[in-house]
Each structure stands twice: as structure tokens, then as C-alpha cells.
Write a structure and sequence with these properties.
By secondary structure, the protein is mainly alpha-helical. It is built from 18 helices and 3 strands. The longest helix has 29 residues. The chain starts with 9 loop residues before the first helix and ends in a 21-residue tail after the last helix. Keywords: Cell membrane, Membrane, Transmembrane, Transmembrane helix.
Amino acid sequence: MSDQPPRFTRRVRSKLRKEAHDLLQPGPPSMQLLWPIGPQVPDDARVQEVLDLCMRVGEVLLSSGESVDETTGVMLRLAAAAGLSAVDVDITFTSITMCCHRGMAAAPVTSMRLVQYRSLDLTRLIAVGRIIERVESGSVDVRTAAIELSEAVRSRHPYPRWVATVGWAGLAASIAVLLGGGWITGLYAFAVTAAIDRIGRLLNRRGLPAFFQQVVGGALATGATVTLFGVGAFPPGTRPSLVIAATITVLLSGLSVVGTVQDAITGNYVTSAGRAMEILLLSAGLLVGVVMGLRVGLEFAPPLEVAGELPTGIGRFWLSTVAAGVAAACYALAGYAPGRSLLAAAIAGAAGFSSYSLLVQVAGIGPVAATGAAAIVVGLAAGLFRRGGGVPPLVITLAGITPLLPGFSAYRGFYQLAIEGVSDGLVTITLALGIGLALAAGVALGDFLTRPVRPSGPAVAEPAPEPGAA
């Protein structure tokens, strides 16, 4: 074969020179081709490392009861702080999906993680919040943050398990006093709730579904109390119905009502529907257990009285306010919150319940509207502690709303369904549902009013303007 270059005619050479000249000319067509390339991002390994950190943080927040809107915002801020500006987050009730877009330069990186629900640990939640702050401030890199996150998730609870039992039992005793009972009524509520918690822990180890755990808890709350009442264990002057109402409040405190309403308000309807279904199922289990306990227990004991209104008066107001603060602190203790958070939770709980009492007793406002207004106070307290005390707002809201939960209304509705009639019971249960919704909506509004102003999303680099453009 000849090594001589091919010979072209004059017309072909002229055409080739013109094409080469056009390709080498700068101008809008050449610049236009660069626009779809997109933002500059790290390599695949770095992207996956950042996505994994963000999704693990999101899993902790979501499993702790945080709303989808807040969880998504935290994940986007973490990604932006780690150098990923063009990311999308999609959260459902049981999964988190995160995608990093890289324009036309490379394929997007997408990862998914299932949300594994764990027991409530507010100390772990606070530790994760500190890791988030350090990443956003640039004081730690992604790899160090991932190591610290693994240690926080795998670490033991800060208190022994019996301390959590004391917290749940103390919550029930405080609610019994708040509702108008004496110290003996509170003592019985303490003992019954402690027994329910230990039995529930044993059933949880056996893998019993949460629905049946609620059934067992409701049946024990009513069955044990009615049995004690039937054998004459309650001294004169005690009110066994308040023991049941306090225990039901404890069983209701684990439901994610606030997160459900927050998700619905912010447009995350899929997750809100999933959480609402969970609340409906667990509440149905509680209803079944309470009605079963009442039906069986009342065969061997006289009917229990069910008071209609909470006691009033200056002395009772201050006693109930103190009991509300103790109840909120006991909930935080049962959730393994650190010592500084216990005081913040107590202040929020006392402020919320005192607001409710003043609105009902002085202003004459109905229970639903009064509960919503008091919940706004709790939400405002959560925002203020976030700004000044470094306590995550979820810790304050979960504990602060506990004294306002409609445990007494729920018990009265369950009692009416079992004894008096379906129509009266449904009306009372609907009232309890309205109180719960007002509670969640008020907390969401109060937290929104005090939330720090942040950008709606990560900034994405704009394409360079055309040469010569104005």
C-alpha cells in the first residue's frame, strides 16, 4: 500500500477548509452546547458517600417522628454543605430516595433507604442534630460525620431501661393528678402503667405487632383497674376512672399525630396518609382493648363513675400546672432525653396547659379551640428553645403536648361505646379526634412562626450568558 496522502480536488479542498474554519470560530452556537452540561460535581464515590450520610440522617429524623418537610430540608442542606447542589429528595412513609443530578456530563446517582423504626431516643436525636450543625458549619468533613453518626446510632441508651419505665409511670401519675385525682389515684396510675410498660417490653421482644400491643395495653389498663376497684383495693375518695384515663393518655402519647398533620399541611400527602393509617390502626387496637376490659371487668365489679369536667379553682389551677410540667418532663425522661431537655420540656408543658386552663375557665372557650391555642404556645416554646437553648424542637413538642392529649375524652368515649350506646360514644370520640387535630395544627403553626428563615432549596449555578448579551 502507498503511504502517500490522498489527493483531493480543488473543490473538495475548499470545502474542507471552510468546514475547519467554521468549527474553529467562537460564537453563540459553540457556547450553547456547553449549557446542558450542568453543575460541577465530585466523582461517583464522593457522591455516594454524601448521599449515604444524608439518607442515614433522614432515617433517624423520620423514625423519631420528624415531619417530611423538616427532614427533606435537613437533607438538602447537608448535601449542599458537602458540595452537591442539584439533588432531589423523595420521602414516603417507609422509604427515602435521594438523587444527585449531574447534567449531561454524567449519569445521575440515585440511592434508596428503607426507614427502620426504632424505639424513641431523644438523646440520639440531639446528637444527630449536633452532627448536622457541625457539617453545615464546615467543622467536620463527610467521612468524620459518617463515623460519628454510626457511633450515635449504635450507642446504648443513656439511661437503664427501668428509668424509662419510671418515666412512663410518672407520666401517668402526673396526668391522674392533673385530671383532678389525689396522690393515691396517682400512685395507682403509676403502678398500673409500670406493669403495662414491662409487659409491653416483653411482648415487643417477642415480635408482637404494635396493634396487638395496643390491645393488650388497653385491656390491662381497664382490666387491672376494674379488678382493683371490684376487690375494694381503692380507698374511699379515689377515682378509678382517672387511673384508666391517665393510662390511656400514656398509650396515646406514642402516636405521631403532630407529624401527620404537619405532613398534610406541607403537601406530603402520601406520608401523611401512611401515618394517619398507623394512628387509626393503633387507636382501634386501644379501643378494642379498653372495651374488652370494661366488658369483662364490669361483670365482676360495679360501674365506674366518669366525671364530665375538670376541677376548677385557683389552687387546682396551680397544682394542675405543676403536674403538667412534671408530666412533660417524665415523657422526655421516658424518651431518654438529657437532663437539660427535661427542664425545657417541663416549661413547655406547664406553659401549654396553663394557657389551656385560662382559656377554658376564664375566657369560656371550647376545648377544641383552647387546645389549638395552647398548642401554639408549645410550638412557640419549641422555637424559642431551638434558638436559645440548642434543644431540637421535636423534643419540646413531643413532651409539651403530652398534658394536652385527649386521654380523658377518649376514655369517656370508649366507656360510652361499651356501656351507654354507640351514638354518644361516637360523638365523644369525634370530640377527642378534633382535640388531637387542633393540638397538632397548633404546634405546627407555633413552630412555623419561630422557624429560622432559610432558603427554600439549594442554589443551583446559572448558565453563563451568551457573549454580547445585555
